[in-house]
Request: fold
Amino acid sequence: MRVEPAGGRAEVGAPEPSSRLPHDRWGPLEIAFWLAPIPCYFLFPGYLVLASQVFITSLFALSLDLILGYAGIVSLGHAAFFGIGAYTAGLLAAHGWGEPLSGLAAGGALAAAVGFLVSFLVVRGGDLARLMVTLGIGQLVYEAANKAASVTGGVDGLGGVAMGKLLGRFSFDLEGRAAWIYSFLVLFACFALARRVVASPFGLSLRGIRENDRRMPALGTPVRRRLVAVFALSAGLAGVAGALLAQTTQFVGLEVLGFTRSAELLIILVLGGTGRLYGALVGAPLFMLAQNYLSGIDPTYWQFWLGLLLVAAVLFGRGGIMGMADRLRARLPGRAAR
Amino acid sequence: MGNVRLWAASLLVLAASAAGAEEPLKIGLIAAFSGPFADYGREIEAGMKAYMKLHGDKVAGRKVEIIVRDTTGPLPDVAKRHAQELVVREKVDFLAGFGLTPEALAVAEIATQAKKPMIVMNAATSIITAKSPYVARVSFTLAQDAAPMGTWAARNGIKKVFTLVADYGPGIDAEAAFKKSFAAAGGQVVDSIRTPLRGPEFAPFLQRIKDERPQAVFVFLPAGEQGIAFMKGFRERGLAEAGIQVIATGDVTDDHVIDAMGEVAQGMITSHHYSAAHDSPENKAFLEAYQQVAGSLGRANFMAVGGFDGMAAIYDVARKLGGKIDGDKAMAVLKGWKHMSPRGPISIDPETRDVVQTVYIRKVEKRDGHWYNVEFEKFPEVKDPGK
Amino acid sequence: MVTSLIGVLFDGLAYGSLLFLISNGLSVTMGLMNFVNLAHGAFAMLGGYACVALMRRGVPFLVTLPLVFLAVALLGAVLERALYRRLYRAPHLDQVLFSIGLTFVAVAATTWAFGPSQQPVELPPFLRGQLHLAGVDLGKYRLFLVALVVLITVDLEFLIGRTRFGARVRAAVDSQTAAAGLGIDVNRVFSVTFAMGTGLAGLGGALGIDILGLDPTFALKYLVYFLLAVAVGGAGSIKGTAVAAIVLGVFDVAGKYYVPEAGAFIIYALMVVLMILFPAGLYGRRA
Reply:
């Protein structure tokens, strides 16, 4: 789905122009993309746990794209909402309420509420102030969880997250089958929601705010309110992702709130390409698979090449993987004649 | 006619040898191999390999294979995911290792679900063995090591103590056990501080200790660099001149770092279950094998011994079960298991599945130009008081 | 009671002055070039490791200090010319990612070269131990540190306030375009100030080994504190960074002394409060 002005200029990171009118239908490439994981479920039974983690990270990256790619807010503390969702769902289950879907909703709701409160701090100030505030909030939540070890388990983590059956029928098994299906469906549902939001007038106004937030009020857009709304939505989705992690692994470690997680998320999103939702869905699997494989060989090696890749990506590869895909497509014959 | 018989005979031989060529005995080793706690995993693995050097790499007809997974630090969710993959994908027979408590706590749930025996070779919080009926520990608990220190200190004229421990499972256990045994013997703890597990700065805490002027400070810190940093700051700030003694569990004067600590640690009194200076034939054999397997890692320490004895347990279980590892049967063998370890005699309590061993009081002294923890008193058959 | 308070204040002052020394460069970079350089912690770390490498070759600690400053300043100048310069007009996100990438490379390189453990530092004997002044015990090394930072700050104030070069820097901070219009070679000003800022950070890293420790996680672990000092003090203002660094240092040490259970919570809470009250920093110019 793309909204393109007819004959517009190709910008860095922006989708390429075409002469089609905007629409919200699912293209064949999209449908194929979403059908692709299904055979993987049957072909790689030993990797279901890893796949669930990939879905969860994709959802988390998606939530960040809403504020970073569409609204232009750089956040270094998004893991705070992820962690809030995780601990909410985890604590509910550890204290007897093991129903998965309501736990998921609770995690998302609490994260969205906190996001709503935090958004008032984030919408004022320029880039540096936002960076510091989000970083500070992230660290603050981390320290709070660390100190409240009697509740959260601190460094030792929160165990005993006893999950009930999904929809009353499917229990979370050791091989990770139920977890896989659950994560995949939740990811899809949230993606569909995000897609709808982004294609709506609300979503378009967000892009306008990102490009030039001083002109938007002249068009009648309540800038602050839109930013608060999208920030809360993004926090909510991050919370859902966190709750998913807690429920599928039946454990919550303190590092769900760590700075490393926020930083890695930023990297994933930018490598995949911001501002188009699919960047998150492409970046997360690639990053996690690469990390799983290369980090297993040697973590130092992984960190070095990741750093180098980042530097190169910023200097040369604008728009991430999706951006490169766009440029490749523009070069294909048959497309040039327009 | 003769050809058919020859073929039949060879086929039979082939079939027999195919049946005899068994699956390797897979042990999943989960610990930190990178990051600030990288030495923990490496020492445990080296201890395991030292045992294999002395006793061969085959047991009950199966070749022993160690599959290593790096948690990179106290990241329990990573440990849990590794355990899940080891059980589902690699189909290991044993889950082993665990340098840090959070790793063990998370994996215990997998052990229960998959019914796999889990051998804890280092993590030292009391509650770990209660988390799953499939957990057996061969290392130690902090409560076990700390309690005798409280008794010894009070007996030897130390009545007022300030405690400083790292803020996680083992630290809290050590603090509680020390306080209990110290108070029971007539001592008084004037104040307590808990330092963050990762990257603490000791300066403000040391200042506070100095200002309160206790007779001694009881310390527990995770083995390795933190002990060095603490002792350096201790000397720098003049706490020794102020007449404050340091008593600690042996993690602070870990054999791996004590030579590097050098004079800074001279005279420190610690309580612990293993010293490289322990005089026994088993220890000599262990130290030699360790040097051959992992000479570049430095001196063997209690984590290496944990790996070594854990391997002994695994081998014994495999032998008794004829190579067919079943979770419940393995636990039955481990309960009540007795062994002469390089540290002294150890056994596994059948009710708690935790290790019972001798705890020694040692002093830091120089021997043959190197620094060692020299044992001078002992408390035999100490069970984990944390239960 | 009072002596312990003085002791705490002194420790906080020492810690704060170390933070200031390192954060100073970051403040100028962010204020002058509008560049979010998250790799600043990595420069400090590299300074520390340069010091360790020199000491391993037998160079005494005090001699390593000026060498470290020069080495890291040179590295900074080279990187600025080659890489940073291309990103001055880039969006902040790109700058963030670029500098994080550089940091990762630095951390991986030092882990590979020096291993993941803490590096020890051999201080010269006259800097070890404590000095007893009027009933208070003050660490000799910390005294040395504070004295050195005061000396450097005075020099910097002189440089910025009284020299022609300093005038150019101040002009460029106020308005790049106007300064360029007046014929000031803004690019050269950038290069020199960036080099100096990173050199000072490297020096701070070397001086800080004894107090902050040194291992590959240094670059990211303390980055938060440097950013804090800059954000709270106001980017581009040396005075602001100094005040912010000292306030943070004192609060951190005092917090750990009087309320050890709260830990680092205090610092982050303080920061959030200050950012709400002063979005541009205490002495900030740019919002």
